[in-house]
Amino acid sequence: MTGVPAGWTAWREDLARRIDGITPESLLADEELRRKAALVLMDDLAAMVVGATHAEVIALAQSFASPIAPGESLTALGTRGPRDKVAAVNAAAAGWDELDEGYRPATCHGGLYTVPAVIAEADATGRTVEEVLTAIVLGYEVVTAFARAFPAPRPLVLHPHATLSPIGAAAAVTWLRTGSAEQVMAAVDVAVTLSMSGPFSHAVSGALVRNAWAGAGAVLGFLASDLAAAGLGGEPTGALDVFAAGYGHATDEAELTGSTGRWAILDGYHKIYAACQYTHSALEAALELTEGPLRGRSIDEIAEVVVATHPLAYSLDNRSPSTTLAGKFSLPHVVAAVLVTGRTDPRTFGEELLHDPAVASLRERVRLVPFEPLPAAPHDRPARLTVRLTDEPGTVLEADCMSAIGGPDRPLEEDQVLDKIAGLTPATPNLAALARRVVTTRELDGEPWSALVTEAWQR
Questions:
Q1: Could you give the domains of the chain?
Q2: Are strands 396-401 and 366-370 parallel, antiparallel or unpaired?
Q3: Along the chain (459 residues), what's the average pLDDT of each consecutive run of 10 residues?
Q4: CA atoms of 419 and 282, how far apart (whole Å)
């Protein structure tokens, strides 16, 4: 056991108190919180539908489908399987295109680590929509608390999809099963020991196993819940041993001793760009240039593009991405794709432009430098693009983006997220209508989740 910092025991007790005695009725009486939980849920369902179109996700779902038994839960592809494997498929699909919800106060995707496990458990056990929403809020609260308590060093060495996802899944599933804060914390103490050391560099190089880490975390979350219930428990200091002693993450003393604010899910953000969020400010600056001083110019007139960026993006420097994942985590590719096309729709960051000659050529002319001095949050993920042209004076064009849309100071409005869902899911036309009903009304709260998700994903 590593040394126990002052405040650790009190921090755990406070986290348990926050979720103790919570019921759907008491939690969801807060209309703002209920609508936000519904928005996170439906946004991630839409991301699953988009991700489920990829050949690798289809193959994964087929490998888990049983030719004998119909299975407990439904995947976004319409196949059925064991609940933990279904959660793995849906989590891989949700994160595949970088369109899932995220959390800015720490490097954590609270929805991705809770929603797939919750909906698979709810589908298998006949839980209601309001129970699903409550489990998501509580699982989100727990996993983001650990993310804040053990902030990852910059630049990132390990990927949060690997290190944190078992915690969110275990907390959410265990609450759905027991409603007990004590049991949730016991499952979390097991889940932290199942944390995976997935290298962040795999995202940059494009190793597609990265897209499976949140799914693996969902499976491990189910396992942690089962193990804790069977008496195979962990230690209350397990997170210190794993994150501080093992991974070398410093504990945040302010988090351990500070007062608790509002529910963490209210600080979640929604994305419209199908690329790593760390690239978003740069791609918005690139779009500004294409719509302004670069309009009508050929990219052959560009001699160099200098991207001043923030520490989380320093490693995103792959100029030869070989997979769409690598492209989404490549600042040279994302910036070049926007400068060449003047677009920022999901196709811009997909397979279509990965090997485009013009984009590939421009990628080689993109150079990353630190953005200095780095501003404080919410402007802690800024970008400045400086484009130098090939003309005789060497004309220099510049655009800044201090905070991309979706950030705390530029949040997507509810209707914008609902429009995003509709735009992403024409193949499942029921989903957009259901999303609006679930978010804006309570008329489906008491309905079985299994009926709703079957209708939502019907093609």
A1: 8-272+413-456 (1.10.4100.10), 277-401 (3.30.1330.120)
A2: unpaired
A3: 81 95 97 98 98 96 78 92 96 98 95 98 98 98 97 93 98 98 98 98 98 98 98 97 95 87 94 97 98 94 97 96 97 98 96 96 98 95 97 95 93 97 96 98 97 93
A4: 24
